[in-house]
Each structure stands twice: as structure tokens, then as C-alpha cells.
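Q&A FORM
Asked by: J.P.
Topic: structure of cyclic-guanylate-specific phosphodiesterase

PROVIDED:
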Amino acid sequence: MFGSVTALVPYKKKMLFYYGFLSLLISVFLFTVSLYFFLLNDLDNKAKAAENILISQMEGIFSELKRVVDNAQLSCEEDDVKRLKRLAFYSDTFKEFGLFDRDFRVFCSNYGAVDIPIFSSIVNRIERAAERKTVSLVHSKSLGNPTLFAFYQGENGIGANGLAPPVRFSTLIDPIILPNYFYELTIGKRILSSNRNGIDSDIWNKEVVSLDDWSMRLDVYLPSNLYWQRLHSLIPFIFIGWLFLFFAFYNAHLIGIYFRRSLRHCVRRAIKNAEIEVYFQPVVSLNPGEPLELEALLRWKSLNHGQVSPLVVVKVASQLGLMDELTWLVIRKVGAFYREYPDQLIDIKTSVNVDRFSLLKESFAPKLVSILEEYPELIGRLGLEVTETSALNHEELPVMVSRFEQITALGIGLSVDDFGTGYSGLDFLRRFPYDTLKLDQVFIANLKDDQFTRQVLTSISILAKELGMKLVAEGVEREDQLNDVRLLGVDRVQGYYFCKPLPKDQIITWMTFNNAV
Ligand SMILES: Nc1nc2c(ncn2[C@@H]2O[C@@H]3COP(=O)(O)O[C@H]4[C@@H](O)[C@H](n5cnc6c(=O)[nH]c(N)nc65)O[C@@H]4COP(=O)(O)O[C@H]3[C@H]2O)c(=O)[nH]1
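REPLIED BY: S.T.
REPLY: Here is the structure written out as C-alpha cells.
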């Protein structure tokens, strides 16, 4: 398929450049934007993971302090000190423990008895806290500046404090956040742990995690150099995406061309844009003094498919469900023809081919009425030719009879087209109010040599006369055929012998030459 299409499509450098540029833009855009959102999402995940680990760390800290408080007394004997030393030795977090009393004075530590008042600001926080827990960053002689102090007061009033170096927090958070992102963990306004300093990069975004119970805040930053680093490693993928999109666009372009040039699409467009032409072929009367009639036949010359047979156009239009539109288009063009040549066509009737399924529709007669209002020139001059391409079923038969009655009531003549080739039997003729019967051209072609055809046509001719129908012979090409059909009692003749279907201006010229106007 594509081979033949590429042959149709001239090689266009501009188009290739356009698709190349467009696909490059899209590929770059997709990768750069997706990377940014990917990193934002990653940043968010990292911040959440750090938050979870901080929460569990804080819970661990306080359950440790609770254990210290649970067995403590208001004494600082050797055993009490030993116990505190033991707890500090086994603790992952704390290096020192202390015990304080109801008056918030630390009376015992793992170094022995002490008497150190707790800062009033911390006392306030302990008293305000729901579970009497708080943390603070304070200078400590033994652990330096800053040191994390955690306080917990039990129900009996005895409390414990633990001292931890901030490094404990960085060892927890660093593996989650480093090396890609950087962070700052603060308690109140003081920094507990941070790797922010010394990082030489713009900050593109940050995630903030707040642990309000401990006045803790973790800011995780997205540095711009991480983005550029990652983007750099994506260059081969951007290139592959570019190629992929380029081929996708190019193939879509070819498919689009193929589709636009497909017969179905062209027929649809031709009907929609009224590009279908109508030619006219005379139907000459053999009864002296009677004016000729015309048959309107569609013609379509497609830019892509050349001259397309009307039978093909009709077939494709019916596959596309556009037969009604096609019929209205042809009838309107016939109306316009009458409007253009009112004097020349004053006595001339024109018949138009109609699909039987269009006729069966309830909307058919009302639509016809509206076209007659649009083109009153057609009133009394329009005829419809119906070809029986399939047999009518029991339900369709009465509907068809009533449609025919509605149409004849509008003064529109009805002809059976191609009689003898379709499903129109003799019984069919009696049921429907046809005024004309058109014999298919295959009978006329065989008439000379085929005795049987001659007998059949003689019987049809007798029946047509009995039913008051006019008989038309189609496809008369030679004089001997004309003589033969004349002998059969045919009223009108249509065929190349007289004239081929012609465009509107040429048929008017032909009629003028043949004294038909
Ligand atoms: N060999 C030969 N052919 C002759 C001679 N005289 C006329 N013809 C051709 O016989 C066909 C007569 O039209 P049809 O039986 O209604 O058969 C029509 C009709 O069934 C259908 N058609 C044409 N226009 C329309 C239309 O507007 N609507 C619908 N629904 N069908 C149409 O397409 C068919 C073919 O149309 P055309 O190709 O125009 O073919 C026309 C005409 O050009 C002759 O002496 N020798």
C-alpha cells in the first residue's frame, strides 16, 4: 500500500523538514516535561519516606524515655546511676539520660547526682504538650552544639530527658534523600541536620514536611543540576523518540493521503461539495408531434480517479448511505438546468434515476415537495426512474404502493427502469402506477438475432399498451435496431443512434439543431 502511495506523493523536502522539526520539538518537550514531573514525584516520595522515618524515630525516642521513666524513683543512688548508664550504653539514639522531678529539676544523670533546672521555655512546652513530650536543640557540655534534648514526664511527675547527637538524624535521612536531593531538618528555628550548605545549584522546587508535635520541619530541595544531569542521560532516548515520532507522523501523513484519495472519501466529498455533474440524454418519441424527453445521468470526473462510471458512484454512495443526498443533488441540478434554460425546456420532461430504498423512506415525499418548492420549474416536468435491484418483501410492498401514490399525486411520472433485468415481474407492473416502462438495452442488443427475445418483447409491449404505459427502448445504437423497436410498437427511443448523454449546454445545442426546441 505504502509503495504505491509514496509513488503518488512527490518527495517534498519542506514536508520532511516540517515533520522532522515537529517531531523533534514534541520529543524534546515530552522528555523534558516528563522528567521534570518525574523528579517532582520522586522528590515527593523521598520527602514522604523521610517523614515516615522521622515519625518512627520520634516514637522510638519517646518509648525509650518512657522505659527510663517507668522504673525511676526520686533517688539517685548508685543503682539508679548504673541503670541510666546501662540504658545509655544500649541506646542507638541517646548518649546520656537524666531524671527530673515535679519541679523540673534534673536530679540524676548517668554521671551521678546533679541539680540542674530545666529552662522555663522547655518546661512550658512540656506542660502544654498533650503527652508531656517535647524536644529541643540546646548546647550541651558533653555532646556539643547543638544537641537534641528529648523530654518526657510520666504520670507520677518523674520525667526523663535524653541527649542525642544530631548525627543520629542525618544517618537516618541521608540514605533516603542523598545524593540527588538535599535537605534541611530544623527544630524551631535551629538546624538539626542539613546538607544544604556547599551545594552549588539553583533550587527548582521543594517539598516541606512538618512534624508540628515536635516543631520539626524537613525541607527537601530539588536542585537544578540533578535535572540537567538526568536530561543529559536521556539524550539517546530523546533521539529515539524523535525518530519514532517522525516515522509515525510520516506514516500518518501517507495514510491520510491514501484515505483522502480513496474512492469512498472522494465520492463522499464530491457529493458533499456538489461536484457531481449531470448530463442529459434525449429520449426521442416515435409518435410524430410529441416532444422529446430527457434522462438525467450523473457524471463524475475525480481529480484522483479520473472519469468514474455512474454505476460505481451509485454503488459507493449506497455503501456510504449517501444515496438520498445523491438523488437530491441530481434533482436540484436538473431544477437549475430548467431555471437556466426556461424557454428551451418549456415542453421537455426529464427523468432522474432513484434508488428503490430511498423511495421506501417516509421522508422521501416530503423532501421531494420541498425541492419542488425550491424549483417550481420542475413541477409537471420531473419523472423518476426506479430500477428493481431486489425483490420487495411483504412489508415493503404496501409501503411502496403508498409512496408511489404520494409521488404520482405530486404530478411526478414514474418509470420502471431496465425492465426485464431486475425483479420487476409482470404482476409487479399491474400493482404499481408506473406510466412508462423502459426496456433494458440487453434486449435491444439481442433483438436482431434472438427470436425468443423478440417474442418476450412483443408480449411486454402488448401488456404495456393494455396497462396504458408508454414503452421506451434503451440502448438503440443502429438504424436496424430503431426499425426493429418501431415494429414492436415502442413509443420512445433512447440511444447513441440519436445522441449520447451530453452536458447541459451541448444538449441544448443538440436540441436546437434537431428542431426539438
Ligand atoms: N451502450 C450503450 N449505452 C447507452 C446507450 N444509450 C444510453 N446508454 C447508457 O445507458 C445507461 C442508461 O441509464 P440507466 O439504465 O438508467 O443506467 C444508469 C443508472 O442505473 C445509473 N445512474 C446514472 N445516473 C444516475 C443517477 O443520477 N442516480 C442513480 N440512482 N443512478 C444513476 O447508472 C447507470 C449507467 O449510467 P450511464 O453509464 O450513464 O449509462 C446510461 C447511458 O449512457 C446506447 O445506445 N448504447
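FOLLOW-UP: The two ends are 52 Å apart (CA to CA).
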